[in-house]
Amino acid sequence: MKRSILAVLAIGVLLSLGTVVMAGTNPGTGIKGTAHDMSSGGLGAAYGNDVGGLDRICVYCHTPHHANATITDYSPLWNHNYSTISTYQTYTDTTDGDVPGSTQHQLNATIGQPGSVSKLCLGCHDGSVAVAAYGNFVAINPTHNNSGATVAGTQYQIGAGGNLSNHHPIGFDYNAVALVDDEIAPSSTALTNGSGMLISDLLWGSKMECSSCHDVHNTKNTGTKFTWVQDTQSALCLTCHIK
Length: 243
Description:
By secondary structure, this protein is mainly α. The protein is 17% helix and 2% strand. The chain folds into two domains: 61-166, no CATH class; 171-243, no CATH class. The chain has a two-stranded antiparallel ribbon with strand order 1-2. The longest helix has 17 residues, at 2-18. The protein starts with a helix and ends with a helix. Residues 1-19 have low confidence and may be disordered.
């Protein structure tokens, strides 16, 4: 009898361990352990560990003091070097729509340069700056800067060489497009992940930016690859595109 009870308990323990959600390995569980974790417990070995021996995660992007706020108008205590690319080649559509002679379902908005929030992402992802190029107070203490030399791997590069023409467009007014295109959902549409968030919650001044699809800290998303919505059956795409 005792052996039977112990066996059941052992199986229960194994099953419970098998369902433990580890931070970073699942959507919405935090930045630790994700591809944005540059500590030695994450990708630190590839890009250079945090100098100072504290093995921190946030320091690659943020700092409480001496932040870099010289280029963009959105700098959340930014601690990383900005991209060296000043102008990007943006996405452009063809002249005909999916109905011959019609441009209704083509991008009907002016595409500007990436907004400030997207430029923060591109500081690593366009490959022009080393991932570990952080620390804005070298003149005060040179040992607190880890410029490194390793840039994001090719598979992670977006806008390499300043070319954004073959990526989903950003830097355009979403509402302006939805107004004239009946295959684009209005920004009042709720996300399909049960979060209660609307498309409008993910726009920056009504504009589509990198963070309109991605939650870089892996805290409120329900999809892998930091996406707000898991793209199974193209659910992420179909949040905005009515097909």
